[in-house]
Amino acid sequence: MKIAVGSTNPAKVQAVMEIFKEADVISVQVESEVSDQPFSDEETLNGAVNRARNCLIERDADIGIGLEGGVVKMERGLFVCNWGAMVTKDGDIFIAGGARIPLPERIAKRLENGEELGPVMDDFTKRANIRKKEGAIGIFTNERITRATMFGNIMEMIVGQWEYKKNHDES
After folding, report:
1. Which of 61, 93, 114, 145 is most deeply buried (CB count within 10 A of its CB)?
2. Where are the alpha helices (DSSP H) in the chain?
3. How far is Cα 142 from Cα 129, in angstroms, rounded to an integer?
4. In this structure, are residues 83 and 48 in contact, taking their beta carbons and an 8 Å threshold?
5. What is the pLDDT of residues 99-157, one digit of tens each?
6. 3-state helix, strand, coil in the chain (%, to 5)
7. SS3 call for 148
8. Cα separations (Å) of 43 from 2, 3, 118?
């Protein structure tokens, strides 16, 4: 089975490879067709679906996977949000969302002023490529949950839905 992941981010690719151990998993840089910093659940989810569709088509894969991180404004502040999508050659789409935690006010203000979370986190931590490692979720949970773990949980939910459909399809 050929699985295309719509990202070259190691945290995202690792999450997919952990689930599809026996498959040929390839990473493909494709467009999300949303803002560089998605600012709602809907925009973040649309980015995940777009990535899944785009890499499925680009690599003629059996399955396309899109994983997208964003933020969502709530009454209690700005929260990280994460969505995943899996699109099959047959046109089925499976989606799932991930963990949410509030961002500190000083981070939230920078995002609300137009900056992107990845570079803001690099500046905040004085380290490079946080988004490719533990991510903001890892920093602010003391690495109890990392970006790869969180996307791994999303992948478990997506694949579980796919398996359920395969096992319970009436056709």
Report:
1. 61
2. 10-19, 41-59, 105-112, 117-125, 135-140, 147-168
3. 17
4. yes
5. 999 999 999 999 999 999 999 999 999 999 888 888 899 999 999 999 889 999 999 99
6. 45, 20, 35
7. helix
8. 27, 24, 17
Q: How many whole angstroms separate alpha carbon 67 and alpha carbon 52?
A: 8
Q: Give the amino acid at 117.
A: L
Prediction pTM value: 0.92
Q: Look up residue 129 and give its two tokens.
A: 């490529």
Structure tokens that stand for 142 in this block: 């003391």
Task: Say how many CA atoms lie within 13 Å of 124 toward its Cβ.
Answer: 22
